[in-house]
Amino acid sequence: MAMVCLSDFEAYAKKYLPKIAWDYFAAGADDCTTRDENILAYKRIRFRPRMLRDVSVMDIRTKILGSEISFPVGIAPTGFHQLAWPDGEKSTARAARAMNTCYIASTYSTCTLEEISAAAPGGLRWFQLYIHRNRAASQQLVRRAEALGFQGLVLTADLPYTGKRRDDVRNGFRLPPHMKVKNLERAFEVCKMSPLDPSVTWNDIYWLRSLTRLPIIIKGILTREDAELAVRHGVQGIIVSNHGGRQLDEGPATIDALVEVVEAVRGRVEVYVDGGIRKGSDVLKALALGAKCVFIGRPALWGLAYKGEEGLQDVLRILQDEFRLSMALAG
Amino acid sequence: MAMVCLSDFEAYAKKYLPKIAWDYFAAGADDCTTRDENILAYKRIRFRPRMLRDVSVMDIRTKILGSEISFPVGIAPTGFHQLAWPDGEKSTARAARAMNTCYIASTYSTCTLEEISAAAPGGLRWFQLYIHRNRAASQQLVRRAEALGFQGLVLTADLPYTGKRRDDVRNGFRLPPHMKVKNLERAFEVCKMSPLDPSVTWNDIYWLRSLTRLPIIIKGILTREDAELAVRHGVQGIIVSNHGGRQLDEGPATIDALVEVVEAVRGRVEVYVDGGIRKGSDVLKALALGAKCVFIGRPALWGLAYKGEEGLQDVLRILQDEFRLSMALAG
Amino acid sequence: MAMVCLSDFEAYAKKYLPKIAWDYFAAGADDCTTRDENILAYKRIRFRPRMLRDVSVMDIRTKILGSEISFPVGIAPTGFHQLAWPDGEKSTARAARAMNTCYIASTYSTCTLEEISAAAPGGLRWFQLYIHRNRAASQQLVRRAEALGFQGLVLTADLPYTGKRRDDVRNGFRLPPHMKVKNLERAFEVCKMSPLDPSVTWNDIYWLRSLTRLPIIIKGILTREDAELAVRHGVQGIIVSNHGGRQLDEGPATIDALVEVVEAVRGRVEVYVDGGIRKGSDVLKALALGAKCVFIGRPALWGLAYKGEEGLQDVLRILQDEFRLSMALAG
Amino acid sequence: MAMVCLSDFEAYAKKYLPKIAWDYFAAGADDCTTRDENILAYKRIRFRPRMLRDVSVMDIRTKILGSEISFPVGIAPTGFHQLAWPDGEKSTARAARAMNTCYIASTYSTCTLEEISAAAPGGLRWFQLYIHRNRAASQQLVRRAEALGFQGLVLTADLPYTGKRRDDVRNGFRLPPHMKVKNLERAFEVCKMSPLDPSVTWNDIYWLRSLTRLPIIIKGILTREDAELAVRHGVQGIIVSNHGGRQLDEGPATIDALVEVVEAVRGRVEVYVDGGIRKGSDVLKALALGAKCVFIGRPALWGLAYKGEEGLQDVLRILQDEFRLSMALAG
Fold first, then answer.
1. Where is the FMN hydroxy acid dehydrogenase domain (chains A, B, C, D) (predicted)?
2. Is chain A in touch with chain C: ≥3 Cβ pairs within 8 A?
């Protein structure tokens, strides 16, 4: 089976992953309308291709918060990479470094931050976090990430509670016994209810700010109003995201929301987007609409499921080639 | 089979109900366009989710015509509950009371008003009625309902004649011999033709008003013009409804009609809506567009078909949980 | 098999007619886009139903060019009724008379005008004609129709050449040897090429006018410009029609074209419409948009195919009942 | 199997061509969205048919850059005709001459320009070229074409790099050993990398101009901005084209782009269009929107695959008949 485009990796993962893992990665909230809209919205956007421009040399490198990456596609935070590949997030970190791009490690990793760092020293990494009821747990995670050389903190704002993903409920999804949410092992001990705090507000950004000198990127913004609030509360970046359509169903597609967020932000902070990226031309569309960089979630997991770090590199390389080609063809 | 969302109850009912009963409950007029539009119209409405608001405590109680209910979802009037579950409307009444919400009992119940009242004393109930050719029959029903403690009269305005439901014609639908429209047993004796009066006009509201001190809620309004007339004729509430798409096909979806009705009413009376509610987020959309409360029809019957009052409670509980979650996630 | 709605007759005809006959009746030009659009366009039109109006008595009779019919649905001109039922147009004439409505007999009938007249004396009938290269043939037909008591002449304007109906080409469609286009038997003898004259223009209306005192109705108008021309050239009626989607594919649906034609005509002549009528509510929509009456083509043939004149009466009766019901339910 | 419309030829070719050849001809870039949009966009355009105009005599001849063709449909440049029929481009040239229309021979022909010329002396032919890294190779091709009596040079502007056609990658598409890109045999020897130059700009039109007295037609324009540039750089004609949807996916359909190009050009040069023509009425639509002539790509290959030059003539004749009929029916 030739791996020609990202759908090939999706088909492979669907075929070879255990159903419970595939379902978990594929899940969207409720009717999965928003999950699917993320993709459909890209298809509705049309290029106006220009001809006879010199496209013999193209520079596709970019910088995010000052760090150069080889092309504007990073790895979005997703949980439980060992469900896709035995080495889990260690493979992800290695692939991202090999491709010289940014990897946002999830709090819900099946490897510790320390293992991730050790697997690919020197790679560009950000750390995704939630604010926990137990603020000390959050604070400890921030300190660890900072100490390990993570270069950004990504605060997920759209998960006061977990969205309703029907297949996960049906499957009674939980991690197999040999996998653990290692970063939180100690935190879970002190907290029997859901460890995430649904009472978090914009003021908690100030608290987070006080803990660290790292840039804070807020993830999950979908409206101009919240984009304005984010800028005012001093974040350095915004990831326009609907959590892959896994939280509130029937909100906007991220590429549609990107337009109003970019407009509201007026260049004051960097804006990124995730959700629905399936082709290099999707990356070009996102950039044309004002994103500085995009992040991929499920496609990264399909790459892992195919061949670990090698498979993820394949996915990134295909996106890179397609992105470069579509830039050339669009003039 | 895990019952995770309302569609699971629908699938169960379709599988286990006798075809003639399933067809009767599922039926829409003509091509069923409006029946299906009721659902599709909800899907076209998009949220603008807001982030980082304190959603740790949410109060989802509401009041309808002064009575508190535990969350803004009641039971719409539908006929023949014994087709779904042996105890029929008695189970419905018990489930509604258990969930502390409002049940609108249909004239076409297979239990008498007295049986319904006795099954769940103290529950909040309204009574749905038509105006009969034999006005004395209508008057008698109103008196009985009032005496039994029903707290509202719901006048159905959209059934001067019964809509054409093709499957019912094909099936030659009628009640099995052991079931009866018990509330009308005596009325039917004096009236060989359809007992409903197609000559009813707005002035009959005054007649109804003269019979009772109960609030009158009119059901079946779909336009701003009729909403204005309803207010002027002194009703206390309006249920925006197209009878589940069972009367005139190719009219508006109720959630679309709600917008113009709410605008016309300008808060002078309470406005409710039924038709097409399948998820907690549908409830949130209806409330965001001005409804005070929604009523569910077919989903209640699916719950009954699954496990009687217990099944209906399951349905209500799922809607309640989904409603609360979508409120939190929408900020 | 219960015959509940017009689709049931369609299914019957598709099952029991010889394929070559079914294909001929069902055929649309090219991709059949316009044929199907005729139906889809009705579905896009929505009612605004009004409530609590006295609908106990409704008068659905109407007059077309001064003649009363029992309800506003007539029989459009279609060819070769013997392909559907042995008695052919004689059955059609009988059914139309029995239902007290208007039947437009086609030039391409498999019975003569004389046979049609004799089959149902006293019925309201119009005669559909083309203008032939051999003007004498046309003149003779007009004289015969007039002498036989036909009360209107319907000039088909949209067939300078026959549209491309792929299945007819594939099937090598022609009438079986025992059927004949009897009205034209003599005309065909003098004319080896297509008998219809593609050089006909608006001035030929004057010529037709000079031949007869019958009202002239022009069929096949789809634009405001042509509607204006038709009025100026002195026709008494316009049938908005695209020949059932059998001529130019990808023109407008007739119900959409009706709106602009009615607007242009401003009541100076009567406007009718054919194409896509499948339910009584379609009739109501056409009337609400300004048609004085509609005509049905394929559904009449399905009725014939089912049970001859009896089947066609069934079709008309269903439409009548549905029309009356939708009037009542729409208020 | 009767060959009634172009889809019949498509079905034949799909059935009888080797998969690798069918896939190559059918291929679109990425998701094939633009390939399919080319067709769908025609379907969205509606006629406003006019009646009672004298359509007994119609002249469908036209002139492109001063040369008369029998009807406004030419053969677009496509590669590798021997994949469809053993005689390859020689058959194409013969069919085009027989039908008295224009054939644009591709650089990627499997016959030499000399063979093509010799096969059908006197036919109207243009030559399609790219600008090569090796300018001498391009120059030599231009000289050969001019010397052989080709009457126009078609510069393809939308292929700085080849689009990503997934099936071709999966199939490992390359020409069978007995076929060659004969026109480039010598050029390939001096150039191991892709022979096409991605650094070409508008200024290279001046260079091309300096080589030849033939008119230059630019192919691949999709925006008003590029149309203006083309006119300013002195081309004689523009082919609105997206390379059959084989280059950048998710750009505009050509018939949609035609409108803005025609508007920008304001008659200063001739405008043609290719892509998505499947019926004679599509030709009429393109002409009504301002094209002087259309060119067909895949349908020509299907014709070849069916019966060589005879099959291609069948395709052209069907288009001609359909075009004439739709002109008559549209008035």
1. 1-331
2. no
What would you report as the CA-atom Rg of chain D, rounded to the nearest whole angstrom?
Answer: 19
The pLDDT value recorded for residue B189 is 46
| C84 touches C18 (CB < 8 A) | no
Nearest CB among A33, A204, A221 relative to B43 is that of A33
Q: Confirm whether C220 is domain-assigned.
A: yes
Whether A90 maps to a domain, the answer reads yes
Strand partners, B104: B126
Domain tally, chain D: 1
The residue written with tokens 């409505």 in the block is C101
Residue C50 lies in a domain: no
Q: Which of A43, A55, A328 sits opposite D250 (nearest CB)?
A: A43
Least confident of B113-127, B174-188, C186-200, D236-250: C186-200
Chain B contacts in chain C segment 207-226 (CB below 8 A): none
A50 and D CB contact within 8 Å: yes
CA A239 and chain centroid, separation: 8
C283 contacts chain B (CB < 8 A): no
Amino acid D187: pLDDT: 52
Task: Kindly state the percentage of chain D with pLDDT values over 90.
Answer: 95
Whether C243 is a known active-site residue: answer yes
- CA D4, CA D315: separation in Å to the nearest integer? 9
Residues of B in Cβ contact (< 8 Å) with C314: none
pLDDT tens-digit series, residues B296-324: 999 999 999 999 999 999 999 999 999 99
* Beta-sheet pairing, B237-240 with D216-221: unpaired
For an interface test with C, which of D10, D52, D279, D320 has the most C Cβ atoms less than 10 Å from its Cβ?
D52
pLDDT, tens digit (0-9, with 9 covering 90-100), for C123-139: 999 999 999 999 999 99
Please name the residue ranges forming H helices in B107-253. Answer: 113-119, 135-147, 166-171, 185-189, 203-211, 224-232
The CATH number of the domain holding residue A322 is: 3.20.20.70
Structure confidence at residue C189 (pLDDT): 46
The predicted pLDDT at position B152 comes to: 98
Closest residue by Cα to residue B253 from B286, B275, B283: B275
Task: Tell which of D250, D254, D260, D261 to mutate to test the A interface (max A CBs under 10 Å).
Answer: D250
pTM exceeds cut of 0.90: yes
Q: What is the spatial distance between Cα C222 and Cα C255, in angstroms, rounded to a whole number? A: 10
- Within an 8 Å CB–CB cutoff, is residue C39 touching chain B? no
Q: Is D43 on the interface with C (CB under 8 A)?
A: yes
Which residues share a beta bridge with C69?
C62
Q: How far apart are CA D40 and CA B50, in angstroms?
A: 38
Contacting partners of chain C (3+ CB pairs under 8 A): B, D
What is the overall mean pLDDT for chain D? 96
DSSP B230-248: HHHTT-SEEEE--GGGTSS
Domain that holds residue A289: 6-45+68-160+204-330
Subunits adjacent to chain D (3 or more Cβ pairs under 8 Å)? A, C
Give chain D positions within 8 Å (CB) of C158: 49, 51, 329
